[in-house]
Amino acid sequence: MFLKILAALAGLGGGWAGLRAAFTSKGSIDEWTSLGPLDAAPVDTPEQRSVTVTERLGWLERSVEKEIWMRRDGDGAVMVFSAACPHEACAVQKDANAPGFVCLCHHSHFGPDGALLDGPALRGLDTLEHRLENGVLWARYQKFKKQLRAKEVVS
Q: Hey, which of 11, 49, 52, 115 has its CA 20 to 30 A from 72?
């Protein structure tokens, strides 16, 4: 029954593709998720991790996999970034030619600390709030609006 109702609602806005597009562009995410033991993370080398979180659009929700970058410095400092470029939300990769990150879609470049170096992006990589509990690193994954100078959560 639920699927019939969902299918009928989706039919109003372009079918399943329209529903998926609405989630992708407007759905919100705000969830704490485990990144695993901190001592397993390499020192001074960014590491990409996948997390499964719940994306919500009104009363609808779905599980989605998102990518993050984390970096643990030799002095113990930890940085956690969303892997979504703040320009158009394309996936950000480690830069093969420099110590930072690059978005291959539109060629925005970011330093190892996530700071914007150049490109069409208007801000640096979006940092994620994080905490350490009993040796396990947790991050608060949030989705942020793209193409803005200041980081703003999608609500």
A: 52
Whole-angstrom CA distances from 123 to 83, 110, 116, 145 are 13, 9, 6, 11
- Taking the whole predicted model, whether its pTM rises above 0.85 is answered as no
> Can you spell out the DSSP letters for the chain?
-HHHHHHHHHHHTTHHHHHHHHHHHH-B-EEEEEEEEGGGSPBSS-EEEEEEEEEEETTEEEEEEEEEEEEE-TTS-EEEEESB-TTT-PBEEE-TTSSSEEETTT--EE-TTS-EEESS-SS-PPB--EEEETTEEEEEEE-B-SS-SS--B--
| Half-sphere exposure (Cβ direction) of 103: Cα atoms closer than 13 Å | 27
So what's the pLDDT on residue 123?
98
- CB burial of 87-104 (b: ≥16 within 10 Å; e: otherwise) equals bebbebbebeeeebbbbe
Q: What pLDDT digit, counting tens, does each position of 62-111 carry?
A: 999 999 999 999 898 999 999 999 999 999 999 998 899 999 999 999 99
